[in-house]
Each structure stands twice: as C-alpha cells, then as structure tokens.
Amino acid sequence: MTLMKILKVIDKKYLLSIKLIFFIINMQYFTLHQFRRNFAADVFQIKKSDYGYGTGLILFTTFFTNIITATISDKYQKSKAVLISILLISSLIFQLFFVSVFAGSSIAFWSIMLMYLVFLMNIQPLFDKICNEYLTQTANVDTKTYGKQRLWGTIGYMVGNFAIETIIKRKDPNDSGKTFYDYTYLTVYKIVTTLVCVAMIGFLIKPKTTGGTRKDLFKSWKQLIKNFDYMFFIFIILLTGITRASLTLYLTEYQTKVLKIESYDISNYPNFFQIILKPVNKNPISTTTVFGTVLELFVLALSEQIITTFGLSIPLILAQIANLSRFIFYYILKPEGNPFAYVCLIELLKGVMFGLTHISAQQIAIQKCPKHLKTTSQMIYSGTFTGLSTMLGGFIFGKIFTTGENNISDSTTQTGKNFRTCCYVNACISTLALILFCGKMLIDYVKKRRANKKTENVLDTGDLISDN
C-alpha cells in the first residue's frame, strides 16, 4: 500500500480533512472578531453607540444577502467553488481597512465593513453544509459526529485569538508601559490564513452532486417560512442570538475599561508555576476567551453521546439555563480589585451555551428542511443567530449604552451601570426563551400522547371487529 493510500485511509477513519479545515477556517473567519470594537474606535474613531447600530444594520443586510448566496449554491450545487471565491474576496476587502487614506473616515469604515461582512458571513454556514454532506457521504459516519468536527474549529478560534493578541499587543515606552494595539500585521495574518484555507478546501474536499437542484431562487425557501415548527425554532435562536450579540459587542470594552482585568503578579510564585501560568496570565483578554471555549470543547467532543442520550431539544434548554446564569453572575459581579479569575469562571458558561446550542440547533436546522434546502436552512439559522439578532441587539443595547454618556464626567462608572442594565435585560430575554421553548415542548408532548391514544383506540377497535 502506497503512502497516499495509507493517508487516505487514515483521513477517512479520523476525518482529518474536515478537522484541519475547521481549524484554519475559524482562524481566518475570526481575524477581527475579538478586537473589532477597539479597532473601529482606535483606527476610525467610531463611537460605541454608532458601532452597535451600524454593525446591527449591516448584519441585518447580510441575512438577505446570505439567502441569495444560499439559493445560488443550492441551485447549481457549487458550494465548494462559492466558498473558495468568498474566502478570497473577503480577504481582499479586509485589506482596504488598512489603506492609509481611509483612516479616520467613518464613511470609509462603514462602506468597507458592509462589503466585508456581506461576504464573510457566508463562510461558516457554507462550510457547515459542506461538512454535513461530507459526513453523510462517508461510510460508517453519522451527522451526529458533527460536533466532534466543529470542536477543531473552536480550537482554531482559541489559537487565533492568542495569535492575534500577541501580534497586535504593544507596550508604550513613553507612557509608563501602557498597553496599546497595533493592527498593521493583521493584513499578513489574514492573507496567510486565507491561502491555507483555499488550498485545503481545494485539495482535500471532493464534493459529490447530491441532486435536488432548485427551479427558482425564491419559491423553495418560502416553504421554510410557512413551517410553524421551523419558524418557532428560528424565533428561539433569534432570542438567543440577541443575548449573544450584546456581549459580543460590549464585553471586551467592559472587561478592559470597567473591570480593568489585568495580568496577576506571579513573580513570587515558584518557577514551576510561573512557567505554567505565564502563557494564560500574559494575555488576560484572550485567556477569558479561552475559558469561554473550554466547556464548549468538552460539549462538542461528547456531542454524539449527548444527542443520542438527550435528543435535540433538551440541550437547547440547558443552553438557555447556562446563558441565563452567565448574565446573573455578571450582574452581581462588582468591579473591585482585579476580577480576572471571576470573569474566567463566568465565561465557562458561555462555552456550555455555545456548545449545546450548536450541536442541537445545527441538526434541527437540517432536519426541518427539505433535502435541497440545506444551504438555505443553514443560512437562515446562521443569519438569524448572527445577523437579525445583532441588528436588534445593536439597537436595544446601543440605546442602553448611550444612556448618560454625555451627562456624567465619569464615563467608566456610567458604562458599568449600563452593563448591569444590559445583563438584566438579557436575563429577561433568556427567561422568556426558556419559558417559550419548555411550553412548546410540553404542548408537543401532550399532542403526541393524544395521537398515540387515538391510534391505540383505532387498533383496539380493529381487533374487536376482526374477532367478531
């Protein structure tokens, strides 16, 4: 057996191709994710209230552009070609952020951001669809193992965050070593990760045509909108996405300006512990992000067992409980001392919420749609979770975070009060989602019991007639 054949056997057994692509594609996708709010303010002087509103409107727009991309992909069965094109185009647009003539221009920022996100937001749902088709077409593999593949995307997200913070973080020697960020080298990072992504997808993914192409671009996806169960599921995802958006938009600012989390002084620790703790202590923002993914990795690794044991609905309920708990803990957390460790512990709940939501919702999105609408369903689910929800979150929480910003000299104190209000509103939204979803499950259970009883009565009547 040749080396190539051995590699192919190993690849099919362990699904190495999908894992590697998930890893690198998330490093590419999340290039500007963690520091995008800071980047907008530092380079283009965008106000935090304007950022929330503007990003929300753009992501709302991407919900519809994503559907157009999905219909094209589904109709022509060219997901791989579409994904590679989008990766390259989004990377080229990203470079425009660093053209010196655009610096400080809000018009330039929003124009580039619109073009960038219109393409970028297609990447993950397109690859999710490719991944599920790959799993379906691979012998002895079930789509329940999707979570184990996505786990490597989360690892890529973690590695990328550490790499990016290391690349951009600087100390100002003229200002007592104050931390600042130099975003210049993100251009190189984006180009390298994009080229690696394109090469991997081009050589490692060999899609098969599955049939069921569309006859038009709009008629088919409207079938989903008329499906009550599917739309109820999307509404729950919308509520979950709104709560996600608030912390995505404002948590880093709260951590750096209000909580002021910093590295701990570990100089008095034994050398052995210093060596272990130094990597996580050096970059506190990235470390909190890692804690936000630790339990997500655990959930994704056990996704097949979780879905087999609990089904698809129970994980969504547990995700809402974790989400609610996260906001309650942030609400009661006081900005005293250096709450670095407490923030890390709270962010563990984020991983539970994200992990359980993705392993169940991604499967539900596929199950509740016709075979030829898989990409469209993924785009609607993804667009709702990130696009529609961010628009609503931007308006709701943008309004909250502008409260009192012009009337109080101590903006840090006001930001802290606004963040607690934000947590309170989010807790209410999470509670609503939890009640609605549990109520829907109860109603469905009662309906199923009644239907089973009717079936049993019909069978009993048939037995009596046959006996007579």
Automatic annotation (TrEMBL):
The keyword Secreted does not apply. Keywords: Membrane, Transmembrane, Transmembrane helix. GO terms for cellular component: membrane. The keyword Cell membrane does not apply. It is a multi-pass membrane protein. Belongs to the major facilitator superfamily. MFSD6 family. The chain crosses the membrane at residues 14-31, 51-69, 81-101, 107-127, 151-168, 188-207, 228-251, 339-359, 380-404, 424-443. This is Major facilitator superfamily associated domain-containing protein. PANTHER family: MAJOR FACILITATOR SUPERFAMILY DOMAIN-CONTAINING PROTEIN 6-LIKE.
